[in-house]
Amino acid sequence: MNKTQAFNKIQTACGYVFKNINLLDEALTHDSNRVNDRAVPTYQRLEFLGDSVLNLVVSEYLYRNNQDFNEGQLTNKRKELIESMKQIQIAEKLNIKDYISFGQSVRREQFSKYHSFVESLIGAVYIDGGLEETRRVIHRLWELSGNSDAANNRTYCVIS
């Protein structure tokens, strides 16, 4: 499968079409590609951003939809939703390993941190489409059911 086909598949799987496809390319480029060219943009900076955006979206949801939770309960629930095991499940659901560009020094079958690319994908969506689009993608990927908040005309999730 060529890069265009791969990008179309991952965009369909995550439910977001990039305006700037270079951001998706960066989000799916492992740093092993920098061996011969240190200027090649890789997933790591987007992963950093995506981690923060994921924390924000999940924290906001929990705050709005769990009025009876104290800070400790909110923290525990957020940890459950953003932990690496959950991101591993999402990476597997997206088949993200099939779309990552590795340099020659890394064997795809030996690499195990595919969940890091879920956060880089979130960071890329955030840069490309903003917070509302990112919120929608996170809700979709985490399979959270929607509940309308009429005051803000936004969709928030209910987690039991």
TrEMBL record:
Keywords noted in UniProt: Hydrolase
CDD domains, alphabetized: RIBOc
GO-annotated molecular function: ribonuclease III activity
InterPro entries in UniProt: RNase_III_dom, RNase_III_sf
Top-rank lineage group of the source organism: Eukaryota
Transmembrane portions of the chain: none
Residue span(s) of domain RNase III: 7-130
A Pfam family that the UniProt record links to this protein: Ribonucleas_3_3
GO biological process: RNA processing
Protein name: RNase III domain-containing protein
Source organism per UniProt: Rotaria sordida
